[in-house]
Design goal:
The complex is a heterodimer of chains A (69) and B (470). Chain A is mainly α and 69 residues long. Chain A is 36% helix and 0% strand. Chain B has 15 helices and 13 strands. Chain B has an eleven-stranded mixed beta sheet, with helices on both faces. In chain B, strands 10-11 form a two-stranded antiparallel ribbon. Chain B starts with a helix and ends in a 10-residue tail after the last helix. The chains are: A mainly alpha (69), B alpha/beta (470). At the A-B interface, helix 1 and helix 2 of A face helix 10, helix 11 and helix 12 of B.
């Protein structure tokens, strides 16, 4: 089952400041509950069995350079 | 052929008339500009119109063709591009006033290929801001409207492409599809939308939404026109790091009408999700038509379908926020508030969760590919509902209420995760007269089979010939 999700407002504001957002803006009052809801919606990712699966983003160096030359 | 007939003629039909010099590109462009003038105040399909440039290009095309220099089936055919496809010398806003004055110095690869093929650019099409939304809302340039009912959404994010093609404003339009943004407006507006295999059509010169999910492709009125457009825009591009090195066939060879022996899997879970009964009935009837044409239809199970929203959501949010992070710091307050919230929320997804989503995507992809070892195509609805009202946040899908965005992307997101080619083709109308669509998805780079089945279905039914009341 997905873990219980909780994000304190203090942690949210810390992360927002780190992300370059203006934490003194009243907009934060709207953003905080939105972020809470969005992140809660992602918790079901942890219900998926990913044992042995690599992230689907393998980097493959081009043998002759990016432009093929 | 009078003006309105020119506007609703397919590129295939127009190209035959242009090649035989029975009609001039000048007449075609004039008819479309008149159609746009008459309908644009109601639809809001365009952000930028290029009437004089289009007329001048039509005159050049006419001279070239008269001189025996016919370039091919798109020569002299009207095209319009979603306004996140860079066009040299023509502003490209990505649906935001922040970029109202951004004029790229060169064409994106798709625009360049269409230009080389002789297609004539009518303008740049309206879109959900930064392509981040499936409803076609845009207060900066005006919300888009559905030609079948102006109070309803055209869908998004390529909403202007959907309404322009459906209303006969343009013959060929393009869209980009990150979670369904080609197929959603195609379904809601009653046209054909093809999301090609990831990497088959270059993303170079398009404003990204999510690097690993973005797919450019055609939005047109017939399957033949999708094939004709793919013949021009598909192919390797060294300027796109994700561009595939694959041989590009002549996609019109798929238009045989023959689906005998084709194995079509009907995904059981698609019909257990929230789904309007009218949509279900039309889609099941469409699958029965394919069966009557000789396809072999079987039920298949895709349990991870139910995980697609979480996986896709995590990847989309994070990649979109990464791309737009600087913009959020400098101009966040100038963005459409719902788009701003979505972009900002992505800043809070941890790297571990993003990578977890990419791991889950691998598992998801493996399961989906397993299905395509059993069958040649996967079939189901493109949308669980018909077009909802503008700004409606929740909709009813059968007996279940659901958020509008979740509903509209329910069946489309899985194929952005896998990169499979997927087409939306009209398959009926609701009692209220609104389009319903069938989605067919195939193996990577097997657009031929997807187009073959869609074309056979289209030819066996009359849905694609209907015109909206506008």
């Amino acid at each position: 089952m997905a873990q219980e999700f909780s994000l304190s407002r203090e942690a949210f504001l810390h992360l927002a400041a780190e992300a370059g957002l203006d934490v003194s803006s009243p907009h934060m009052d709207e953003l905080f509950p939105y972020v809470e809801a969005q992140l809660a919606g992602l918790r079901s990712l942890h219900d998926i069995d990913v044992t042995g699966a690599e992230p689907d983003m393998a980097f493959q160096p081009a043998p002759e350079g990016r432009d093929g030359k | 052929m009078d003006g309105i007939e020119l506007c609703y003629a397919s590129a295939g039909t127009l190209s035959r008339l242009v090649q035989s010099k029975e009609i001039s590109p000048v007449d075609i462009i004039d008819a479309h500009l008149a159609r746009i003038e008459a309908t644009e105040p109601m639809l809001n399909s365009f952000i930028t119109l290029l009437p004089e440039e289009a007329r001048a290009a039509a005159r050049r095309a006419e001279q070239e063709i008269q001189s025996g220099n016919y370039r091919g089936p798109l020569h002299g055919i009207p095209v319009a591009l979603k306004d996140l496809f860079n066009t040299g010398g023509v502003r490209t806003t990505s649906g935001s006033r922040v970029f109202d004055n951004f004029i790229p110095d060169r064409d994106c690869t798709v625009a360049s290929k269409l230009h080389q093929a002789g297609a004539i650019l009518l303008g740049k099409l309206n879109m959900h801001q930064f392509a981040y939304g499936p409803t076609g809302e845009n207060p900066d340039y005006g919300h888009m409207h559905n030609p079948w009912d102006l109070e309803l959404i055209s869908g998004g994010s390529s909403g202007g492409s959907g309404s322009a093609a459906a209303a006969g404003q343009c013959t060929i339009t393009t869209g980009s599809d990150t979670g369904g943004s080609i197929r959603i407006p195609a379904a809601l507006c009653g046209i054909v939308g093809l999301k090609p295999t990831y990497g088959l059509v270059s993303r170079s010169g398009l404003t990204p939404l999510s690097w690993s999910l973005d797919h450019p492709g055609p939005m047109v009125r017939t399957v033949e026109d999708a094939a004709l457009t793919m013949n021009v825009i598909a192919g390797h591009d060294p300027n796109d790091p994700a561009s595939a090195r694959v041989e590009v066939p002549d996609y019109t060879t798929a238009l045989t009408g023959d689906v005998r022996g084709l194995r079509i899997g009907v995904v059981r879970e698609y019909f257990e999700a929230p789904l309007d009964p009218e949509v279900e009935q039309s889609v099941r009837e469409a699958i029965a038509v394919l069966e009557s044409l000789g396809a072999v239809v079987t039920d298949v199970s895709f349990p991870m379908f139910n995980d697609s929203q979480a996986i896709s959501g995590a990847i989309l949010m994070t990649e979109a926020a990464a791309y737009h992070r600087d913009l959020l710091a400098t101009d966040g307050d100038k963005l459409y508030p719902p788009v701003r919230l979505r972009l900002e929320a992505g800043l809070f997804v941890s790297a571990a969760d993003y990578l977890r989503a990419q791991q889950a995507r691998s598992v998801f992809d493996r399961q989906a590919r397993g299905l395509l070892e059993q069958v040649d195509l996967l079939a189901g609805p493109t949308e669980p509902i018909t077009a909802p009202k503008l700004l409606e946040e929740r909709v009813q899908a059968g007996e279940r209420g659901i958020g509008t965005t979740a509903a509209l992307t329910q069946y489309t997101r899985p194929y952005n995760l896998t990169g499979f080619p997927a087409i939306s083709v009209p398959c009926g109308f609701s009692e209220a007269g609104l389009p319903i669509a069938l989605q067919l998805a195939g193996r990577p780079y097997d657009e031929l089979t997807v187009l073959r089945a869609a074309h056979a279905y289209e030819q066996a039914t009359e849905w694609s010939g209907r015109r909206p009341p506008i």
